[in-house]
Write a structure and sequence with these properties.
Blueprint (H helix, E strand, L loop, with lengths): L5 H9 L4 E4 L7 H7 L7 E10 L2 E8 L6 H7 L6 E2 L2 H8 L17 E4 L7 E5 L5 E6 H8 L3 E3 L5
Parallel strand pairs: 2-6, 3-5, 5-8
Antiparallel strand pairs: 1-7, 2-3, 2-4, 6-7
């Protein structure tokens, strides 16, 4: 029996078309995930959670193996210091374990920022809230589902 991922429930509520992809075994790399989904690595969107200050978090959506620009994030939040959220903080804030995080159906309301590169491919995939399962969708539907979020240059060039 397959359990429907939380992200899929959230997308259904928004009327957003998507597919659920279930991997047959453990995922050991972003390259493996992309290959099994028949995608380029830059079509895999990572949802990374940062601690901006005590009790304040934000999520950055980044394409493939690109790295987040710490400088851009510090400027965005007008802070000289921020850190990646610990696995415990990620679970507490999103409701999801690291490696399954989705920008949809978050446990707590946090700012979501997207690097402009996540919208370049025609289709993307991302975490679903359940290990070994991904959400696949057309990028135009991904953008629509995200609603009002900050889009900018958040990746290291």
């Amino acid at each position: 029996m397959t359990i429907k991922p939380p992200a899929s429930h959230a997308l259904d509520e928004l009327g957003i078309p998507h597919q659920i992809y279930t991997h047959t075994g453990p995922i050991r790399s972003i390259e493996q995930a992309a290959a099994e989904r028949n995608q380029d690595v830059n079509q895999v969107i990572r949802s990374i959670v940062f601690r901006i200050s005590e009790g304040k978090f934000a999520m950055v959506l980044i394409a493939g193996k690109h790295q987040v620009s710490w400088k851009a994030l510090r400027q965005q939040f007008d802070t000289s210091r921020l850190t990646m959220a610990s696995p415990e903080e990620v679970l507490e804030v999103t409701g999801f374990e690291v490696g399954t995080v989705s920008p949809f159906c978050l446990k707590c309301e946090i700012p979501v920022l997207a690097d402009k590169n996540v919208f370049h491919p025609e289709a993307v995939s991302m975490g679903s809230g359940i290990a070994g399962t991904a959400i696949l969708m057309r990028t135009k539907h991904f953008r629509l589902a995200l609603g009002e979020i900050e889009i900018g240059s958040f990746a290291v060039d």
